[in-house]
Specification:
The strands form three sheets. The chain has a six-stranded mixed β-sheet with strand order 5-4-6-3-1-13, sandwiched between helices. It has eleven helices and 13 strands. The chain has 391 residues and is an alpha+beta fold. It has a domain at 3-209: Ribosomal Protein S5, domain 2 (2-Layer Sandwich). The structure holds alpha-D-galactopyranose (GLA).
C-alpha cells in the first residue's frame, strides 16, 4: 500500500466493493484513488505558464479494479445509478454518445494508447465524494485515477507528471474543455500537509508545508456553474490575444510593471484579463513565501487582492460569492484569508483561518448567506492530502 487509507470514507469503499462484486462476480483485486483539489491562489494562471498554489484535499475518486486477460474494458459508475460502459482496446476508442462520465475514462485510456503504452483490459468500478461541478476538480481526479490505475496494473512507464499530462490531454482533446494543467498535477503529485507551488511552464513543483495553526475551509456557494466551458475558453482566448499582441510566448513572460507600461497596446477588456493573470501569478509567488514564513497578515491581503482581481479584471465571480467573501473578509480581518477558488462562475471559495475562528465563520454563513442570496452553503473542513496512488 503506497498511500494511507485513513482519510478514505469506509462507507464509500464498502459500497464500491459491493457494486464491483455484484457486477463482476468476484471481489476486486486492487484499489486506487486520486483526490480533488483546492487552489489557494493563482487562478487562470496555469494556461498562461504562470504559478499556482493548490493542495490536494481529502475528498477522492476511488477505483476498484481487477485486470482482465483480454482487451475489453468494463466500467460501472456507482454514482451514476450503476451505469455501465464497455469498449475494446483493439478498436479506435470513440466518444460515448450519452454518458459524459464514460468519456473521461475512454479519453484517458485512448491517450495512454496514443502515447504508445500497450496494456490489456480491466473490470473497474468507480465512485467518489469530490463534489461535482463545484470547482474542486472532480473531473481531473477521475482522469488521474484512471491513469494511475492502468499505470499500476500494467506497470506502465509513466511519471506522476505524465499521468497528469495524459489526463489533461484527454480533457482538452477528447472531452473538449481547454483546461490548464493545475488540477491534474496536484491530484497526481499532491502531498499530505503540503500545498504545491507549481510552475506551470516547467512543471517544477515545490512542496510548501501548510501552517498547522490554519484551518482550510471550503465553502460551496452551491451556485451552479453556468456557461463555464464557453466562458473559460473565451478567457483563455483573450489571454492568448494579449500575449500575441505583446509579442510574448505567454503572459508568464511579462512583469506587472511592464504590462502597465504597455497598457495602450491592448483593447480595454484584454488588458484587464492580462492584468489579472500577471498580477495573480506574482501574488502566488508572494503567497508561497507567506506560507513558508507563516505570515498570515500577508496571506490574507494577497487572497483579498486575488478575489478583487477575479471580480473586477477577470470577471469570473458571481454576486453570492462576492457576498460571502465580503462578510468573511470583514470577520477575519488580517487573521485569515478568503477568495473564490477554481474556474469561476459559481462553485467554491477557500478560506484559511485560525481553528478558533471556524465556528464563528460557520455561524455567520448560516445566519446570513441564505437570507441574502437564496442559496444554501455547504462547508467542508479539509486537510492537505496525498496525491494519487494505490491503497
Ligand atoms: C479550472 C481548470 C484549471 C485552471 C482553473 C482556474 O479548474 O481546470 O486548469 O485553469 O480552472 O485557475
Amino acid at each position: 500500500m503506497s498511500n494511507e487509507t485513513s482519510n478514505i470514507s469506509q462507507s464509500m469503499l464498502t459500497e464500491l466493493n459491493s457494486v464491483f462484486t455484484q457486477t463482476f462476480g468476484a471481489a476486486p483485486a486492487r484499489h486506487f484513488q486520486a483526490p480533488g483539489r483546492v487552489n489557494l491562489i493563482g487562478e487562470h494562471t496555469d494556461y498562461n505558464d504562470g504559478f499556482v498554489l493548490p493542495c490536494a484535499i481529502d475528498y477522492q475518486t476511488l477505483v476498484a479494479v481487477t485486470p482482465r486477460n483480454d482487451m475489453t474494458v468494463k466500467v460501472v459508475a456507482v454514482d451514476y445509478s450503476n451505469q455501465q460502459d464497455e469498449f475494446s482496446l483493439d478498436c479506435e476508442i470513440e466518444a460515448h454518445a450519452t454518458q459524459l462520465w464514460s468519456n473521461y475514462v475512454r479519453g484517458v485510456i485512448k491517450h495512454l494508447q496514443l502515447r504508445g503504452h500497450v496494456f490489456k483490459g480491466a473490470n473497474l468500478a468507480i465512485t467518489g465524494n469530490v463534489p461535482q461541478g463545484a470547482g474542486l476538480s472532480s473531473s481531473a481526479s477521475l482522469e488521474v485515477v484512471i491513469g494511475e490505475t492502468f499505470r499500476g496494473l500494467y506497470k506502465l512507464s509513466l511519471t506522476k507528471a505524465e499521468v497528469a499530462l495524459n489526463g489533461q490531454e484527454a480533457e482538452n482533446q477528447f472531452v473538449g474543455c481547454q483546461c490548464g494543467i493545475m488540477d491534474q498535477m496536484v491530484s497526481a503529485c499532491g502531498s499530505k500537509f503540503n500545498a504545491l507551488l507549481l510552475d506551470c511552464r516547467s512543471l517544477d513543483a515545490e512542496l510548501i508545508s501548510m501552517p498547522e495553526n490554519l484551518a482550510v475551509i471550503i465553502i460551496n456557494s452551491n451556485v451552479k456553474r453556468g456557461l463555464v466551458d464557453s466562458e473559460y475558453n473565451t478567457r483563455r482566448l483573450q489571454c492568448e490575444a494579449a500575449a500575441r499582441i505583446l509579442g510574448l510566448t505567454a503572459l508568464r513572460d511579462i512583469s506587472l510593471t511592464e504590462l502597465q507600461n504597455n497598457k495602450d497596446k491592448l483593447p480595454e477588456v484584454v488588458y484587464r484579463r492580462a492584468h489579472h493573470v500577471v498580477s495573480d501569478s506574482e501574488r502566488t509567488v508572494l503567497a508561497a513565501q507567506a506560507l513558508r514564513t507563516n505570515d498570515v497578515v500577508q496571506l490574507s491581503k494577497l487572497m483579498a487582492e486575488s478575489h478583487i482581481s477575479m471580480r473586477d479584471d477577470f470577471e469570473i465571480t458571481v454576486p453570492p460569492i462576492d457576498f460571502v467573501v465580503k462578510i468573511l473578509t470583514e470577520y477575519l480581518g488580517d487573521k485569515g484569508g478568503v477568495r473564490m477558488t477554481g474556474g469561476g462562475f459559481g462553485g467554491c471559495m477557500v478560506a484559511l483561518m485560525p481553528h478558533s475562528m471556524v465556528d464563528g465563520a460557520k455561524q455567520l454563513l448560516v445566519e446570513r448567506y441564505q437570507v441574502e442570496t437564496g442559496y444554501k452553503e455547504t462547508i467542508y473542513i479539509c486537510s492537505a492530502s496525498d496525491g494519487a496512488g494505490e491503497f
